[in-house]
Fold each of these.
Amino acid sequence: MTLTRSPSDLDRLRVLVVEDSWEISTGLQILLEASGATVVGPVSTTADAKRLISEDTPDAAIVDINLRDGELSYDLIDQLHDLGIRVVVLTGYADVSVAQGKVVAILQKPVRGELLIASLRER
């Protein structure tokens, strides 16, 4: 399958990926890079994510709510929001309690690539 890029893809957008599933994070990295984004990470813990954003602030982030060993990413989402980073939550759970305005989208796994890319493009 060949991915064709359009001018509205994610050229030069730096996207932090916080996902504890290797298969999902690898798929996200392939999709994002094929769309022109630069992937930061992927990482599987909030500590690793916080370390990366302290080194170089990304433009956007894709964050899973439930990470390794039951860790939840709500504090990370708050920090990303406070830094002005657009956050897309990608989760397998139907009920996610994120304060209104903290994220640009809450998407359910599995997600269509076009929907995820469109969520990241929204400004």
Amino acid sequence: MIKISFPTDYNERSCYLVAINASLMPYVAGALRWFEKRGSWLTDSDYEQGYAAFAALEACLMKCCLDDLIESNDRLYRMLDTAIYGTAYTVVTSDPLLVEPLVQPVHTLDIADPLSIIGRMDDMSQLLQNALNGTETPNYSDTPGIRELLANIIAAIEAGESNDEDMLAQLVQIAGLLA
């Protein structure tokens, strides 16, 4: 087995740009793995330096596709964050791509835009609480609610004080709340 020594003139800052067909990348990376074996090097010092250099080269070969994958995930996250919570993102520069605000590791349940999915769900919840129970919410303050109007009609019928015009007006109001 041939053993090699680490080059004495190695400089990690001077590099060449090598064009490798994308379909050959797995083979090139696999061929470089030979240099990660301890038995490939003359000395332990050569092995340590060689291993670090070739591991960095393999990482460099994979970095391009990893950056694309990470940016793809970030785009998907920003799309969902905008739709669900209404967070507004802006592109500061396109080369290199810089989008603000940065993707955070944790998201709060704050509603950034009332037209987002969560914003609309909150609005519908407030509307339902107000229309059904007459509960005053930040967006709606119409009272009485359906339950109170129905209770008034039932109480008037039981008390024998039912006035057809008043009952009809309350039923029209209930129909309006249900629509």
Amino acid sequence: MFETAAYVSALIAIAGSVFMGWRLSRSGRLRELPTWRRRLLDLGLIGNTASLTLLLAVLFQMMLKSEGVVANFELLSRVSIPFTVASVVLGVFGRRLPRILVILNGLLLTFFWLDLAASSL
């Protein structure tokens, strides 16, 4: 029970920090950031958002099914893990707090996807 609460609270924290990353990257605080770096940071945020959305969809589907097996899970994990690793790399091009949020979210989402893939073996 405690592990489930920690897992859910970690996913809520990731969702909040992805939202905060989008909000901080759009503000006028990053005016000094060149356009190409801002676009790469945005791609990292898109990767975080896509990976989090897919992870929540898979977890919700597993929760609804009694077996805990998701159809095409192997395909989903193969698609989403590169998104999360790419977001870690692309987060390096940001500045200040959005950079840290994109990198940490990418690392945490990669860990969650690998944990979920290991538990489905």
